[in-house]
Amino acid sequence: MRILGQNPADNSISIRIETDDDIWHLYNVVELGDLVTASTTRREEKANDKIRAERTEKKRMTLGIRLEKIEFSEDDLRIKMLGTIETGPQDIGQHHTLMIEVGDNLTISKKKWKESQKERLQRAVNDTKKPRIVFVSLDQDEATIAMMRQSGLKEVTTIRSSRSGKQYDTKGDAGDYHGEIISKIRPMMEPDMPLVLLGPGFEKELLVDDGKQRDPSLFSKVFVYHTGQTGMQGVNELMKKGLGSNLLRESRVGIEMEAVEQVMSEIGKNGLATYGTAQVSNACESGAVETLLILDSKLRDGDYDKMIRDTESQKGNVIVVSEQHDAGKQLASLGGFAALLRYKVE
What is the pLDDT of residues 318-327, one digit of tens each? Predict the structure, then answer.
């Protein structure tokens, strides 16, 4: 994401959507009642007579929409925003839908910006500079390909090796299996994007050797880790155990998953952690919070800036956790709020 400018006169911030992840960040910033201005297309209707109207071609124009409905499409990676036209060359007061995608510029005007929303925009700017990660979790029978975005882990596809029997000639049978894996990850990879291979056994090492011969540039930044499981379970095992922590900490999702895992561990042994809105709020006010965890959907629904300010004023850390991955679902089961503590609070 790129911040193009700010205008205190109308309390607006202009941004450019540069990556898929920016769509998710934007969804966590805009809210009902905001005025969003962007370039769009709309059809004019000119009445030739009282009986029927002539439908003209759509033309491009800039419209300001007062938001009444917001929809996020994870599959299409775009946001649909419906509202009433408040500024523009035509149809003031009528409804219109803005479709925001990668490459679009828009201006968001709010009555009041929450500090968490401003921080989210800045985080989006910083996250744009960090590479995403492609995972291949495999054994000799099947491979699961997943991608880590800032919004969470997303399973892309599963490939089966079609090998028969326990005994087979690895070199003879591996070609099609490895070739299909490589063909699937090639369009996903970007320059300097890490490729992580994981799983039990030696299939991942065989894929590295084969991949470096077939496509050296694709395997130029490859990391190999041993896990006891394959599939998405293997990817989650890798992250929860902190394997490859230096790599995963470059990703926001890795930070979030590690923090939630620490909370669950402390809760399990009745240690320095608490959860629930009232309990966490009390701990924040007491200055006892070392790390505050808030589910991003909570920030969309309410104003928790005081909780955040109380934590940061005592040199605490604040982590906004995406609801799109397993750690987010765990935090949701705790009420959407949790905290790692410096000391216990009644």
Answer: 999 988 788 8
> Tens digit of pLDDT for each residue in 73-117?
777 778 999 999 999 999 999 999 999 998 999 999 999 998 889
- Torsion over CA of 26, 32, 34 and 35, rounded to 10 degrees? 100
**CA–CA distance, 204 with 145 (Å, rounded to integer):** 13
Q: State how many domains the chain has.
A: 3
CA atoms of 293 and 252, how far apart (whole Å): 13
Cβ count near 75 (within 10 Å): 6
β-pair partners for 223: 196
Distance CA 238, CA 138 (A): 13
Which of 44, 41, 43, 46 has the alpha carbon at shortest distance from 61?
A: 41
Which residues share a beta bridge with 157?
A: 145
Query: Residue 277's closest CA among 334, 328, 323?
Result: 334
Same domain, 91 and 181: no
Q: Do 267 and 243 fall into the same domain?
A: no
Q: Is residue 74 part of a domain?
A: yes
DSSP string, 199-223: ESSSHHHHHHHHHHHH-TTTTTTEE
Which burial class, exposed, middle or buried, applies to 54 when counting CB atoms under 10 A from its CB (0-12, 13-18, 19+)? exposed
> What's the pTM value of the predicted model, to 2 decimals?
0.69
Question: Structure tokens of 181?
Answer: 């894996």
- Domain boundary among the residues 250, 284, 314 is at 250
Crossing angle for the helix pair 115-128 and 305-313, to the nearest 10 degrees:
70
Q: Could you tell me the CATH number of the domain that includes residue 68?
A: 2.30.30.870
One domain, residues 91 and 140: no
**Domain contains 256:** no
CB neighbours (10 Å) of residue 18? 15
Considering the domain architecture, whether residues 161 and 234 belong to the same structural domain is answered as yes
Indicate if 16 and 85 belong to the same structural domain: yes
| Residues of the domain holding 306 | 261-341
